Amino acid sequence: MRSQGHSWEETRDRISEEITSGRLAADSKLPSEPELCVLYGARRHSLRKALAALVAEGKLRVEHGRGTFVERAPLLNYVIGTRTRFRENLMAQGLTASGETLSEMTILASERVARALGIDKDAPVFARSWRGFANDLPISMGWAYHDAARFPDLQERRHHTPFITEVYRSYGITDYHRQRTTVFTRMATEHEAGMLMLRPGQSVLVVQKIDADLDRNPICFSEAVWAGDRVQFTFEPDQPTVMTTENASHV
After folding, report:
1. What was the pLDDT predicted at 73?
2. 237: confidence class by pLDDT, cuts 50, 70, 90
3. Rounded distance, CA 26 to CA 231, Å?
4. How do residues 37-95 score in pLDDT, each as one tens digit?
5. pLDDT in tens, 133-179
6. What's the CA gap between 102 and 44, in Å, rounded?
7. N or C: which end of the chain has fewer CB within 10 A?
């Protein structure tokens, strides 16, 4: 008996998942209908219905005479103010924020890290690398550094709560703010492209920041790379922000 093929809903969901994961890159042209039928095991009428549904959802666009293309996702507008918080930024746009720790270690401060934290070069610092997600799509990754003398058991305390605000409070830091932000662009490394699901040769936005306590003493220096085609930054230094208990601030 001849196979009936996958339903249009199954085909729609498979193509949608490949768009979300980045395997089908923004602005890329889809193969021909016969090729798509083979790739997704679908009959032509089911494929056409699935594609029409994805066009209606804004995930695909049809350019007459050229073909069907993956629509470029709307840019995440990341607001940088005096109290920038990763989760709050994403939640305000209806996105789910999450993150993962890639590695943790105590190292000697480089001259750049020492200068940012106001400590001596080669002083011990706690270094943590992480990756941040919006709706399970990776958008950023980087390193954060804390003075090990001021935060001697930071690693252990972080294991008890994922919320950096709560960790700071356990050290008596009731509030903190963004002291300085530096943003520039460069080409993604091969490792960064793989971790952020970017195309080879794509650019990333690099964000260096210093957070400080209410006495203006630096408490954290971090450097993050962001997927340049998924985010834009808006600087609002005087923006009022409601303090909430939330995940680690990534930028």
Report:
1. 67
2. low
3. 14
4. 999 999 999 999 999 998 887 789 999 889 999 987 666 888 887 776 787 888 887 87
5. 888 788 899 999 999 999 999 989 988 887 888 999 999 999 999 89
6. 43
7. N
Amino acid at 179: Q
Selection from 96, 134, 249, 139 nearest residue 241 by Cα: 249
Q: Is 58 exposed, middle or buried (0-12, 13-18, 19+ CB in 10 A)?
A: exposed
Write down the residue that tokens 């720790």 correspond to.
Answer: 101
CATH number, domain 76-235, options 3.40.1410.10, 3.40.50.300, 2.60.40.1500, 3.40.630.10:
3.40.1410.10
Q: Which two tokens stand for residue 58?
A: 């804004």
Dist CA 191 CA 189 (whole Å): 5
- Other CB atoms within a 10 A radius of the CB of residue 227 amount to 25
Nearest to 139 by CA among 226, 223, 222, 55: 226
The sheet with strand 176-187 has its strands ordered as 97-108, 124-134, 137-147, 218-227, 203-213, 176-187
Q: Where are the domains of the chain?
A: 8-70, 76-235
